[in-house]
Amino acid sequence: AQSVAQPEDQVNVAEGNPLTVKCTYSVSGNPYLFWYVQYPNRGLQFLLKYITGDNLVKGSYGFEAEFNKSQTSFHLKKPSALVSDSALYFCAVRDKAGGFKTIFGAGTRLFVKA
Amino acid sequence: EAGVTQFPSHSVIEKGQTVTLRCDPISGHDNLYWYRRVMGKEIKFLLHFVKESKQDESGMPNNRFLAERTGGTYSTLKVQPAELEDSGVYFCASSQGTMYNEQFFGPGTRLTVL
After folding, report:
1. Position with higher pLDDT, B71 vs B35
2. In chain B, which residues have their Cβ closer than 8 Å to the Cβ of A41?
3. Which chain A residues touch B43 with a CB distance below 8 Å?
4. DSSP letters of B24-88?
5. What is the arithmetic mean of pLDDT over B3-16?
6. In the prediction, which pLDDT does B97 show?
7. How confident is the model over B53-64, as pLDDT tens digits?
8. Which residues contact residue B16 at a Cβ distance below 8 angstroms, ignoring those fewer than 6 apart?
9. Is pLDDT of B1 > 70?
10. How far B114 CA lies from chain A's nearest CA (Å)?
11. How far is A68 from chain B (nearest CA, A)?
């Protein structure tokens, strides 16, 4: 069965420090991987995706993520956190052989302190 | 360009009542999805439309839930009769083209069943 795990309910980081939000996944085939962010009272917004090719993908607002096939991980990173990055982050996966069905993780709340 | 809209933003109903949620996708997006998030848990896939056709309804919890997308534009999700466990936030999303394209989410409808 497909699944996504975000092992941390919350990540705290000081402004200016690097941040990492972890995600591991399980699919039977090859994955398409996505990160979305949700700000209060808003819908989820797309940040970045891995389809194929280079394992390091860059996305919106300075975020990047690294696909690691052997560890089945897709951790979200940013070199220097901003207070405005504080939000709820969701990792998601689609199995290339499984159609459009998307499996999401439970979300990780990121707090960036000034 | 208008984003995905959902109505109502909140709904509070008694157990046994009926509720209908509406989603208006981005114009031109053939793919429309419904998801549900119960507090603090993962966002769960409910179903996927391509135009007016249900492509995958494997996530629909039971036959108390009925989704329609007449004419391939807006969609409705009806819960009848509502049960306490149906409470949560219902998200609608839309996308165009292939399965590796990102989804655009509405702000969600928060449903509370008392």
Report:
1. B35
2. 107
3. 44, 90, 92, 104, 107
4. E--TT--EEEEEEE-TTSPEEEEEEEETTEEEE-TT--STTEEEE-GGGS-EEEEESS--GGG-E
5. 97
6. 87
7. 999 999 999 999
8. B81, B82
9. no
10. 22
11. 18
Summarize pLDDT for A46-90 with one digit per residue, the tens.
Answer: 999 999 889 999 999 999 999 999 999 999 999 999 999 999 999
3-state secondary structure of B100: coil
CA distance A7 to A4: 10
Q: Do A104 and B43 touch (CB under 8 A)?
A: yes
Which residues of chain B make contact with A102, given a CB cutoff of 8 A? 33, 45, 103
Residue type, A63: F
Res. B11: pLDDT tops 90: yes
Q: Using the beta-carbon criterion (under 8 Å), do B107 and A42 form an inter-chain contact?
A: yes
Instruction: Determine the pLDDT at residue A90.
Output: 97
Question: Which letter does DSSP use for residue A83 in this model?
Answer: G
**CA–CA separation, A112 vs A88, rounded Å?**
12
Q: Distance between CA A24 and CA B56 in Å, rounded?
A: 25
Q: Is A85 helix (H, G, I), strand (E, B) or coil?
A: helix
Q: Report the chain B residue with the minimal C-alpha distance to residue A100.
A: B99
Cβ pair B51, B69 in contact under 8 A: yes
For Cα atoms A51, B51, B28, give the angle at the middle one, nearest 5 degrees: 70
Which is it for the CA torsion B8, B9, B13, B16, positive or negative? Answer: positive
Cα dihedral value B82, A90, B40, B83, nearest 10: 10
